[in-house]
Amino acid sequence: MKNLIFFSFVTLIAISFIRNAEAAPIEAASLDRLAREIGMHAIAGRAISPVKIAILDNGFKGVTANLGTLHTGPVAVDPNLEEEHGTKMAEIVQGLLKRAGVTAEVHLYSAFGYSNFEAAVNAVAQEKFDVVLYSQVWEYGGNGDGRGFINAVVNRALDQGVLWINAAGNFGAGTLRTAVSKGTDDWAKLPGVNDSAVIRCQPQTGSSCRARLVLSWNSFSDDVKAGTDKDLDLVLTDDTLRIVQTAGLQQKVAIAPTDSGASLYPREIIEAELKPGTYFARVKIRSNNFSAGRDELRLTVSGDFVTLETKTSGETLLAPADNSRVITVGASDSELSSSSRLLKKPDILAPSLIKTNDGLQYKGSSNAAAAVAARATLERALDKNLTREQLVRKLKTISSSTTQTRFGPTGPGCYQLDVLRSAASHLRQMALEGGVIVQTTDGQKMFMDEDPFARAARLGLAVAPWRGRGEGGRLMGDVSGLFEYGNSASPRDAIEFVLTPINAVICPL
After folding, report:
1. Which of 180, 219, 368, 460 is deepest in the core (most CB within 10 A)?
2. Looking at the domain assignment, is residue 411 inside a domain?
């Protein structure tokens, strides 16, 4: 094992499930709805071909044999770090295939850490799997443009004709990308005050936030053993500029076993427990070999109730979701889902909402990618000779159907502004942080820049079922409270909270 390279904290899940939580099984009705939404129609009586699908993930805690054949990696994972994320992805895939009447050969590969990830990819490439689902992204190891050693590994599977489906990741509101440019005293120029990235900790309960900051820059080689001598450091301070934590590895082209505090890779990581308040992340330029026209840094910030206020929009894809040859899937119902305008990704948008038997519900690009992987497996079973382009065209029908709203504007191609027709405190709370109230062909709506369910949870507002009707998926409110509603016409005198449609235009006053 001496030649194995294992990065125990290099990855971050494109997460829609809580790490290490014992999540209940996914509700059958929730899978029924998702199957309808992505077109998983029953194929009884039709000739189908055998299909092999591999699910690569960071953990399969609690997995059962009916979900697939489990393959452990060459490096053992600490049981305390084992995650349930992969198990839930397998539940979605198998649940949707069952509803279509497809029996596929499903294999589950532990891919936690670089060595396990590389071994899993080598296995699926060698055995020429039909479909791979990877609902993960890497915060470092890539340059944001399809290059870097993570994509170099993925390309081995792609070169063998494997259809690789990757979650877009959920860093849509937690990424800052900018040129590496010197400011005062060799601090990198960042958009926040004091050349910083501004971070807020606002816990809903408790007294702290667990935050993770990863700084990387576009100096990754396709060779995992190759380093860089371009050197940046990361410093986190509180609002009094008191240093909370620093990350100051020295980047080197090559390192010896005796090199303490050195790294081959262009990255710095801070994990800290933060008290409520404002924080500043600053970047110190330690080497003189950066070019503002060529070099770019990326800061990703994650954690419950942690927000990055100086974020970049539209260029938030991480490896391998930035690979032009993978099918990148975003969540049509989550504003956190990552994207890239330059790369014209994600390739597919799909619904992601699922509910577990304990009443909890989850959204995110992981779930969306699992659903698309199931649909891709169905299409492969029906026609093994489909080219990648033909298959993508079929999958894009999911995007076109899920991005259509149930309502339209009442103005001349624009949404007319309206006023909140109730003084109920829970409705006013939802509106206070930038909600825009408009008239639509399906009643009054409140356009929001945040997932409505996430805002309700952040504000501590209870959401009840609507008198036992509907499967949910829509958040509405009236004088009695907030409630989850199904796909039928909106109840009278209720307002629906929705993410602002991409092409929405507000009528001028």
Report:
1. 368
2. no
Domain shared by 438 and 487, yes or no? yes
For residue 26, give the amino acid letter: I
Which tokens sit at 381? 């079973």
Is the domain of 157 the same as that of 186? no
**Tens-binned pLDDT, residue by residue, of the chain (509 aa):** 223 333 333 333 333 443 445 678 999 989 998 998 898 878 867 878 999 999 999 999 999 999 999 999 999 988 888 899 999 999 999 999 999 999 999 999 999 999 999 999 999 999 999 999 999 999 999 999 999 999 999 999 999 999 999 999 999 999 999 999 999 999 999 999 999 999 999 998 778 999 999 999 999 999 999 999 999 999 999 999 999 999 999 999 999 888 889 999 999 999 999 999 999 999 999 999 999 899 999 999 999 999 999 998 889 999 999 999 999 999 988 889 999 999 999 999 999 999 999 888 899 999 999 999 999 999 999 999 888 899 998 898 786 555 556 788 888 889 999 998 888 899 999 988 778 999 998 889 999 877 687 788 888 898 887 654 444 567 889 988 998 887 667 788 899 998 777 567 889 88
pTM of the predicted protein model? 0.79
The domain spanning residue 252 has which CATH number? 2.60.120.380
Residue 153 is part of which domain span?
24-171+316-402
> In this structure, are strands 348-350 and 327-331 parallel, antiparallel, or unpaired?
parallel
**92 within some domain:** yes
Give the C-alpha separation, 89 to 57, whole Å: 9
Q: Where are the beta strands (DSSP E) in 37-142?
A: 52-57, 69-71, 105-110, 131-134, 136-138
C-alpha closest to that of 473 among 505, 447, 457, 451: 451
Residue 506 falls within a domain, yes or no?
Answer: no
SS3 379: helix
CB atoms within 10 A of CB 47: 8
- CA distance readout (Å), 377 to 38, 75, 281: 13, 29, 43
In this structure, is residue 1 part of a structural domain? no
User: Are 66 and 94 within one domain?
Assistant: yes
Q: Do 457 and 369 lie in a common domain?
A: no
Query: Is the domain of 197 the same as that of 239?
Result: yes
> Contact 494/442 with Cβ under 8 angstroms?
no
